[in-house]
Specification:
The complex is a heterodimer of chains A (172) and B (316). Chain A has 172 residues and is an alpha+beta fold. In chain A, 34% of the residues lie in helices and 16% in strands. In chain A, strands 2-1-5-3-4 form a five-stranded mixed sheet, with helices on both faces. In chain A, a hairpin with a 2-residue loop joins strand 1 and strand 2. Chain A is globular. Among the domains of chain B are: 48 residues, Uridine Diphospho-n-acetylenolpyruvylglucosamine Reductase, domain 2 (2-Layer Sandwich); 90 residues, Enolase-like, domain 1, CATH 3.30.390.50. The chains are: A alpha+beta (172), B alpha+beta (316). Chains A and B meet through strand 4, helix 4 and helix 5 of A and strand 1, helix 2, strand 3, helix 3 and helix 5 of B. The structure holds flavin-adenine dinucleotide, iron/sulfur cluster and FE2/S2 (inorganic) cluster (FES) (2 copies). One FE2/S2 (inorganic) cluster binds next to loops of chain A. Chain B: InterPro entries: CO_DH_flav_C, CO_DH_flav_C_dom_sf, Diverse_Substr_Oxidored, FAD-bd_PCMH, FAD-bd_PCMH-like_sf, FAD-bd_PCMH_sub1, FAD-bd_PCMH_sub2, Mopterin_DH_FAD-bd. Chain B: This is Molybdopterin dehydrogenase. Chain B: GO terms for molecular function: FAD binding; oxidoreductase activity.
Chain lengths: 172, 316
């Protein structure tokens, strides 16, 4: 058996085939092999959320998963959510509400928050959900709890929450 | 990270066989604990067996009223399952109290059970640690021990089991189902699954070499109020200092398991008999054998107070 493998997946709608050292995390595959540098490396240990991407509709930390484990998966990064001139509503809301300062955590914050709104819609509970058997609703308290896996060293938290609340309203 | 070969297992049996054939092989599920430790070279497998594609990802009722949870069910899916929310709310609550949304989307039932301690010296490869390097000594004894165990610890190791899910499973009397390399199956009660450190803190569970977890089964629902209360240094995204998982019945009787205090979920059935008398009575039995360090003595009071808050919540 070999220390490297071939893996194919779809990134932002485009299929890609890669030969990678088995050790390559999805994060390093995105940044170093595919040059999609929007996804950021903060801690590389699952502690900060800067590397958050969306795989088959679910947000995950790309630093704690191996590229070779994603055969056949559909991966969306910040580059796939929207483009300059054609922003995703969440991207537009972050701009409008100044949901960032240095911007390093922002791609992760945006990928995470897009998925958070889907999670609430899908009635996935959180630590602050009062009644496990009732429908989950979009509240600031829910958003804060669900976004706790995304740290922002600049402390843009209150504007981030405002941006997400607005994006939730736009879509509703 | 050290180099390793990688295999997508084709069946449970072949995964177990492959693991038994190489003592440096490891299963990989969500990868959220294993890869973290591999990056730090605390875990150094030479072969990874990916067990994600084995169809172990369903939650199904059994014909005798139990609930069987596949080993690869993601924490998010387990917490969101309608039956779990209705009949085993404690488990949903414990799951969503742990890690982050992103991590819960990857973390699996089996991987969560097997997550390793968060003792800072275990993570620091420059420090002696009997769990990481048997025989090297325990840096936490006489070191920073605020997060460490107050019950069931040994001269070799005072680490805690850090997880939330297993604390709820202990209160619910879950059973861990496995397959051994030669094909035999086992049902391990959760009480016997995690071990106390003794003088072999590197051996953390009852699993044998190559043995693979296929499911966790919950006994038929027992009703009652399901409460999981986790006390930590920040409101979210942090491990427990102390956590209490409880099922309290209308007559005040119930079950209680405690996290953050020992090398395994801590439950003392004799303490439960005292629950109707209140937190003080129950905690005094639960914590009778506590041997805290100067830095984690606060956990003894914290367990009693957290249990008190749980009992108040149950009374409404
Ligand atoms: C920043 C951070 C914060 C966290 N906070 C919390 C928290 O607050 N509370 C909490 O409870 N947890 C927390 N966690 C831990 C998290 O819950 C675990 O990492 C996760 O549950 C592990 O599951 P996994 O599927 O990713 O396991 P993996 O990393 O894939 O595997 C873990 C272990 O299980 C073994 N294994 C996997 N599947 C099987 C199987 N079927 N049979 C036998 N062995 C198997 C692997 O070989 C490995 O040794 C946190 C983690 C991080 C990174
Ligand atoms: S408490 Fe256990 S894990 Fe921590 S340093 Fe001591 S032996 Fe290692
Ligand atoms: S870089 Fe992945 S969580 Fe920090
Ligand atoms: S904007 Fe700088 S870290 Fe969040």
């Amino acid at each position: 058996m070999s220390y490297s493998s071939q893996v194919s997946f779809t990134i932002n709608g485009e299929s890609r085939v890669l030969d990678v050292d088995n050790r390559t995390t999805l994060l390093d595959a995105l940044r170093e092999h595919l040059h999609l540098t929007g996804t950021k490396k903060g801690c590389d240990h699952g502690q900060c959320g800067a590397c958050t991407v969306i795989i088959d509709g679910r947000r995950v930390n790309s630093c704690l998963t191996l590229a070779v484990m994603h055969e056949g998966d559909a991966i969306t990064t910040i580059e796939g959510l929207g483009k300059p001139g054609d922003l995703h509503p969440m991207q537009a809301a972050f701009v409008k509400h100044d949901g960032f300062q240095c911007g390093y955590c922002t791609p992760g914050q945006i990928c995470s928050s897009v998925a958070v709104l889907e999670e609430i819609k899908a009635n996935i509970p959180s630590h602050v959900t009062a009644d496990l058997t009732a429908a989950t609703t979009v509240t600031e308290v829910e958003i804060r709890e669900r976004m706790s896996g995304n740290l922002c060293r600049c402390g843009a938290y209150s504007n981030i929450v405002e941006a997400i609340v607005e994006a939730a309203g736009t879509r509703a | 990270m050290r180099a390793f070969t990688y295999e997508r297992a084709a069946s449970v049996e072949s995964a177990a066989k492959s693991a038994a054939a190489n003592d440096k092989a490891k299963f990989i599920a969500g990868g959220t604990n294993l890869l973290d430790l591999m990056k730090l070279e605390i875990e150094t497998p030479t072969h990874l067996i990916d067990v994600n594609g084995l169809g172990l990802d369903t939650i199904e009722p059994t014909s005798d009223g139990r609930l069987r949870i596949g080993a690869m069910v993601r924490n998010t899916d387990l917490a969101s399952n309608e039956t779990v929310r209705r009949d085993y709310g404690l488990l949903s609550r414990a799951l969503v109290a742990g890690a982050s949304g992103q991590l819960r989307n990857k973390a699996t039932t089996a991987g969560n059970l097997l997550q390793r301690t968060r003792c800072p010296y275990f993570y620091d490869t420059n420090q002696p640690c009997n769990k990481r390097q048997p025989g090297s000594g325990c840096s936490a004894l006489g070191g920073f021990s605020r997060q460490h165990a107050v019950l069931g610890s040994s001269e070799a190791c005072i680490a805690t089991y850090p997880g939330d899910m297993a604390i709820a499973m202990r209160a619910l009397d879950a059973v861990v189902e496995t397959v051994k390399p030669e094909g035999a199956t086992r049902s391990i009660p959760i009480a016997e699954f995690h071990r106390l450190p003794g003088d072999t803190p590197q051996i953390e569970t009852a699993l044998e070499a190559g043995e693979i977890i296929t499911a966790v089964t919950l006994p038929a629902p027992i009703g009652g109020q399901h409460i999981y209360r986790k006390v930590r240094d920040r409101a979210s995204y942090a491990f427990a200092l102390v956590s209490v998982a409880a099922v309290i019945q209308p007559d005040g009787s119930g079950r209680v398991a405690v996290g953050g205090v020992a090398h395994k979920p801590w439950r003392v059935e004799a303490a439960e008999a005292e629950l109707p008398k209140g937190a003080k009575a129950a905690a005094s039995i639960l914590l009778a054998d506590a041997r805290p360090t100067d830095q984690n003595r606060f956990k003894v009071d914290l367990v009693e107070r957290t249990l008190g808050a749980v009992l108040r919540e149950a009374r409404g």
